[in-house]
Amino acid sequence: MTQIFLTILPVFLVLGTGYLGARTGYLNAGVADALNNFTVKLAVPTLLMRAMYRLDFGQAFHIPMLVAFYCGALASFVVAILAARIIWKRRPGEAVAIGFCAMFSNTVLLGLPIMERAFGADSMAPAFGIVALHAPCLYTIGMLTMELSRRDGRPLGEALKAAMKSILTNAFMIGVLLGTALNLASVPIAEPLMAAIDMIATAAIPAALVGIGAALTRYSLRSEISESLMISALSLLIHPAIAFLLAYELLHLPMEYVRAAVVIAAMPPGMNGYIFAAMYDRAMGVAASSLIVANLLSVFTITAWLALLARVAGAS
């Protein structure tokens, strides 16, 4: 267990560096915006484009693995909405925003570096398969559910049109689609251009982690701690538990697919949950609080999931 904790610790140390730098004033107040702007609009889309360009689609898009992961995500979404409505008496739109936070794992900025750190670069293809579908599928589900739940919601056709526009103009999605198109068309990329792509892609993860850490200084726990703990439990425990039970116990998938489904599912909510809540001005306090609570708890829960994966792999 200690060795596994030490394996993922550098990822959280980089995140903590951003937090402490911004909290102490060593890094100026605008560093979070600058780094997040760089990573979201350029570095991470470049990383995803390169990954999709080099991806073996047959290995990445493994349907049973995707079923295991996304069943867990959708279950977390539904349970969080019901809990928010029944227990905390939230309005429909607020409940959907809370459900989205529980459903949308931080697959790119935390999931990918932890996956690579724990299992090596050769383990990444299945993880990229999950990531490629993550934003378009879950944003579509979240936006359509929100539009249908709000009293001031638009007609279904208009909601679907707005959702598709938001997805297709998302920088992450542009990177995925561009890399996929170049891969399928077997378009060669000249070495100087690929070297430049590699340089930008290499900067993506550390810059993103520092940016997330700096951004966390802006949020407080407020009074929504109980709802934040509910989101954390769904994100960090229920989602990966469902993925593990389906992938390992029911479908008996090879370990490379079990690892990808469980590790990516075990990630805490990321900035997308807060962005979604802000987009509709619903439950922003809960979304912000859950960022802090889930990211703190994830250091321990991710370690536990990696230990379980190591144990079952050893027993296979």
Could you explain the architecture of this structure?
With 316 residues, the chain is mainly α. The protein has a single domain (2-315), classed as Na+/H+ antiporter like fold (Up-down Bundle). The chain has 14 helices and no strands. The protein has helices at 2-24, 31-54, 57-60, 63-86, 92-103, 107-119, 124-149, 156-168, 171-184, 191-216, 225-250, 255-265, 271-280, 284-315. Helix 2 crosses helix 10, helix 4 packs antiparallel against helix 11 (225-250) and helix 4 packs parallel to helix 12 (255-265). The protein is globular, with a radius of gyration of 19 Å.
Topology record:
Blueprint: H1 2-24, H2 31-54, H3 57-60, H4 63-86, H5 92-103, H6 107-119, H7 124-149, H8 156-168, H9 171-184, H10 191-216, H11 225-250, H12 255-265, H13 271-280, H14 284-315
Helix pairs in contact: 1-6, 1-10, 1-14, 2-9, 2-10, 4-5, 4-11, 4-12, 5-7, 5-11, 5-13, 6-7, 6-10, 6-12, 7-8, 7-12, 11-12, 11-14, 12-14, 13-14
In short:
The chain is mainly alpha-helical. The chain has helices at residues 2-24, 31-54, 57-60, 63-86, 92-103, 107-119, 124-149, 156-168, 171-184, 191-216, 225-250, 255-265, 271-280, 284-315.
